[in-house]
Specification:
By secondary structure, the protein is α/β, with parallel strands linked by helices. The chain contains 8 helices and 10 strands. Helix 7 crosses helix 8. This is ATP-binding cassette domain-containing protein.
Length: 265
């Protein structure tokens, strides 16, 4: 496994957790993955994978279809069990070692809203009575305050994904897993959602892992990009661009470097 700077000309890299904004209140959990294997029968999906993700870090995982991206996300979410290896969690300040499934939320490409419940009731799923106001606050943050009484069928695709994001964040997760949640959206809506996810991540400081086929999206959002190839970490790229990121020449150069690496796998 190689660990490369996204810029070949950078001599010194600021660690990801130090380069984030001082205003970010980190509540995220550290993720430590050791010797992870996953098999489906005779098919090897992940093999001897080691990875450490810092609390509050934003990591994007890219790679060709079938390389193990979504499987890795499902293992972290405890939606599947590893064939071998360990996935361990630790809170930033060590005051809560026991990170549970309640601290982890997943957003999929399909928003998975319940069609017989209003947007507000979807956002409140799983919350205790004294937490219901949190869902209302999140709907306001994602721009759906005026849509809270509507049914999912009455919203656009982008609005449904905003509702799914509000539902995930209403549980105050320490880890947010994003499995290509923006893949089905049009270009402008996708950009809006990227900005919204980044804004809420900066505000709340949860650890984020994004699986995406869109290299531009990975460079736009991530502190670090991990390239998977046949169940292995082929390369890692640290993104050292100031936020909010502008798509100028530096951005294009970084995007091309990651894309070239993906195409070479």
């Amino acid at each position: 496994m190689t660990d490369l700077s996204i810029s070949q000309y950078a001599n010194d890299l600021i660690p990801v957790t130090e380069s984030q904004s001082n205003d970010q209140t980190q509540v995220g959990a550290e993720i430590s993955i050791e010797q992870l294997y996953k098999y489906y029968g005779d098919v090897k999906v992940l093999e001897d994978l080691d990875l450490n993700i810092a609390a509050g870090e934003f990591v994007a995982i890219v790679g060709r279809s079938g390389c193990g991206k979504s499987t890795l996300l499902r293992l972290i979410a405890d939606l599947e069990q590893a064939s071998y290896g360990e996935i361990k969690f630790k809170s930033l300040h060590n005051f809560r070692e026991g990170i549970t499934s309640d601290d982890i939320r997943v957003m999929f490409q399909d928003p998975r809203l319940l069609p017989w419940k209003s947007i507000l009731h979807n956002a409140q799923l799983g919350l205790k009575k004294d937490q219901l106001a949190k869902a209302e606050q999140l709907l306001e943050k994602v721009g759906l305050k005026e849509k809270s009484k509507l049914w999912p069928s009455q919203l656009s695709g982008g609005q449904r994904q905003r509702a799914a994001l509000a539902r995930a964040l209403s549980h105050t997760p320490r880890i947010l897993l994003l499995d290509e949640p923006l893949g089905a959206l049009d270009a402008l809506t996708r950009l809006d959602m990227q900005n919204l996810i980044e804004k809420l991540w900066l505000e709340q400081g949860f650890t984020t892992i994004l699986v995406t086929h869109d290299v531009s999206e990975a460079v736009q959002l991530a502190d670090r990009i991990i390239l998977l190839d046949q169940g292995h970490i082929a390369q890692q790229f640290r993104i050292d661009l100031p936020r909010p990121r502008q798509k100028g020449s530096a951005f294009a150069e970084l995007e091309q470097q990651v894309l070239t690496a993906v195409l070479a796998t």
